[in-house]
Design brief:
- The protein is 42% helix and 26% strand.
- By secondary structure, the protein is an alpha+beta fold.
- It has one domain (2-75): Double Stranded RNA Binding Domain (2-Layer Sandwich), CATH 3.30.160.240.
- The radius of gyration is 22 Å and the shape is elongated.
């Protein structure tokens, strides 16, 4: 955790190491508490995203590729080709 102040603006940086990933967030604000809250929100988003990836890594329909495949199936035109006589 790193705090600094320059020209009346506070900077808060947090780095978190885990076995799977390296998380980093930083924020600037005129109030030190707002900067810390912004960093906490950014880290929370990263943690939740990683948790979602970790819990759904075996469910293809919930992965990015599965969602794209489902979206492509919805967007493709449903035209039926007739056989030539």
């Amino acid at each position: 955790m790193y705090f600094s102040k320059s020209k009346g603006e506070f900077l808060a940086e947090v780095n978190v190491n885990s076995r799977q990933k390296y998380f980093k967030a930083s924020a600037r604000s005129l109030d030190v508490y707002q900067a810390v809250d912004a960093v906490a929100e950014r880290l929370l988003k990263q943690f939740l995203r990683m948790r979602k990836v970790h819990t759904n890594h075996k469910k293809f329909e919930l992965s990015k590729g599965g969602k794209l495949r489902g979206l492509n199936a919805q967007l493709e035109p449903k035209t039926r080709l007739r056989k030539a006589a």
